[in-house]
Amino acid sequence: MYHALGILALAAPLFSQPLGDIPPGKTFLIVQSHHDDHTWQWGFSGFAARLVDAGWRGYFVRTTNDEKDGGAGWGKNDQTNLRESREAIRALGLTDVISLNWRNDHMESVPVKEVRAQFILLLRKLRPDVVMTWDPWGHYDRNPDHRMVSRAMGEALWLAGQWNVHPEHRDLGLVPFRPGRVYYTFRSDYGKGHGYNVAIEFNDAQMRRKADAYWAHKNVFNTPDEAKRIREALAVRNLAIPELAGLSDEQAIERIRRWEIEFASRETARNLGVSFAEKFWMVNEFDGLPGLKDYLQKKAVKR
Amino acid sequence: MKIFLLFATVCLWNQSVLVVTADASDYVLCAGGTLAKLASGGAQITLVRVTNDDKDSVNLLPEETANRVRQESEAAAKELGIAKVIHLGYRAGELGGVSPTELRDRIMFYVRLTKPDVMFIPNPYAEYVEVLDRHYTGMAAEEARRTATMPNHQPAHAIAGLSPHIVKELYYYSAPVDPRRREPEGPAQFVPQPVVRDIAGTFTRKLRAAQALTTINQAMAAAIHRRLEDTGRRLPLFDRGLTESAVAKLVEENVRGLAALCAKDTQFRQAEEFHHAGPDYQVPLRYSGAAKR
Ligand SMILES: [Zn+2]
């Protein structure tokens, strides 16, 4: 993603979705396109921190190599962004970053089957109870990597449970697997977008880790020039931010970054009676079988 | 519900209907009752089934799965009164890698060959339909309806005696999972509108058609069973195994559940939902019947 302070003008659509609880399970998998997708305001990191605190193991899949993101040149950007995404998941308490290293911003020209094959293998190997990923039905996201990951992951979630899809996986002892719950996210600031059906609350300590994870991506977010521009623009109007007084531009940008991610989490939580939240479209285990959903809910019993 | 256009049954005697489906079960579960009703009214229905459903089965090789589902889908179509089934034979789950133009032109061939008055196609805009083959098929079929009218598409067709054809009516079908599926989307002249059709009279035939798809149904039952087992639950219906009768009962619950869901907030007991593009769709107002009235 390419980022500007436009984030401060976050347009939070009106929503009054119920607060979601932590589903049963122990493993979650975040599959996104870029090193920082899970940590920004359309990400999952507050939810991830909460799951980790509840004893879950989490994995983050970085699908591209992020070579375009940052000012350091392709190879250096790739390596720095990967290193920083490892720092970010450490802050959140996730177990690992799995980098698939597809070429950043060139994913639309990759066959969907090639990408989805890797996702299916990961789903069957890690057997996550919860998957968090880009929404294949999100609107107006013009990022080619977000589009491809959403589509490939949509196909992977549909097909990973079918026997004759990648039968070679059986030679690894892997069997078809379908995650119980999927949480989708998407850019809500582009157009009308889609609605949300759940919000996940997280606490102050988890918010701090979310901000740490966000700020870990210094290769793209440590932009002292931006702090300088903001302060100059305010000064023209005889305004200043007292909390930034005496801070260098380097220090000020860190403060601003932490504010912006906290602001987004507070905005989402507004009207929900909690301090911080993230919002998603959640697809539950039998939502794909609308005719049977109620029946299974009523008839399934504990073994 | 006022947002719906609940319209009366039209006599379709001798009408030609073309149904396009990505897989063997989708059109049965979403439109089977309506199609059975049309067939009873004398409509000649042709089904184009795009994929071979070779992926989803229990302990069957893809080739064996494809063979069985082919036969079962013929049986299901017969239950509904469908006169002819065309199997395009694309491998299931792989339409994302097929040229959209190729798929469109293969469907267009059958539009020009069967010259339907009405088409039923998967709704490619229905959100949260996880079987993405349905999305690709819907996109191709929607395009095929348009290109079939234009002689500059596939000029070789004319040499072979296939002339351009206008399909007057179009129904988009999909499983009722899109949370916004019943919201109107703009004027009917430009955008297909949500409609609900009563299927109480043909529900039993729809159910029998769905139950005929035994290979797919076994796979669905097994997937549910596996999910419940993995999460420490069980379905008493499966206590004696995934027997033929248990799976048939599960399918019945599914078909009943779908019919009830689609009938919700309407005067019907059992129904199917569509988006409908009627004869005035995309016809400038001054040429349409509405303007003359
Ligand atoms: Zn991104």
What is the domain total for the residues of chain B? 1
Name the CATH homologous superfamily of chain A.
LmbE-like
- On the 0 to 100 scale, the average pLDDT of chain B is 91
Shape type of chain A: globular
- Residue windows where pLDDT falls under 50 for at least 5 positions of chain B: 1-11, 284-293
Average pLDDT for all residues of chain A = 92
Q: Could you say which structural class the secondary elements and strand pairing of chain A correspond to?
A: alpha/beta
Find the biggest chain interface.
A-B, 44 and 49 residues
Query: Strand tally of chain A, please?
Result: 8
Q: Order of strands side by side in the largest beta sheet of chain B?
A: 3-2-1-4-5-8-6
Strand and helix order of chain B = EHEHEHEHHEEHHEHEH
Give the fraction of residues assigned to helices of chain B. Answer: 40-55%
Low-confidence blocks of residues of chain A: 1-15
Q: Helical amount among residues of chain A, as a percent range?
A: 25-40%
Strand content of chain B: 15-25%
- The geometry of chain B reads as globular
Regarding quaternary structure, what we see is: heterodimer
Structure report:
The complex is a heterodimer of chains A (303) and B (293). With 303 residues, chain A is of the alpha/beta class. Chain A has one domain (3-286): Rossmann fold (3-Layer(aba) Sandwich). Helix content of chain A is 38%, strand content 15%. Chain A is built from nine helices and eight strands. Chain A has a seven-stranded mixed sheet, sandwiched between helices. In chain A, strand 1, helix 1 and strand 2 (57-64) form a beta-alpha-beta unit. Chain A is globular, with a radius of gyration of 20 Å. Chain B is of the alpha/beta class. Chain B has one domain (16-177, 188-279): LmbE-like (Rossmann fold). Chain B is built from nine helices and eight strands. Chain B has helices spanning 26-40, 62-80, 100-114, 132-147, 156-159, 203-212, 214-230, 244-263, 289-292, and strands at 16-21, 44-51, 84-90, 118-122, 169-173, 193-198, 233-234, 271-277. Chain B has a seven-stranded mixed sheet, sandwiched between helices. In chain B, strand 2 (44-51), helix 2 (62-80) and strand 3 (84-90) form a beta-alpha-beta unit. The interface between A and B is large, with 44 and 49 residues. Zinc ion (ZN) binds at residues 1, 33-34, 37, 143, 146 of chain A.
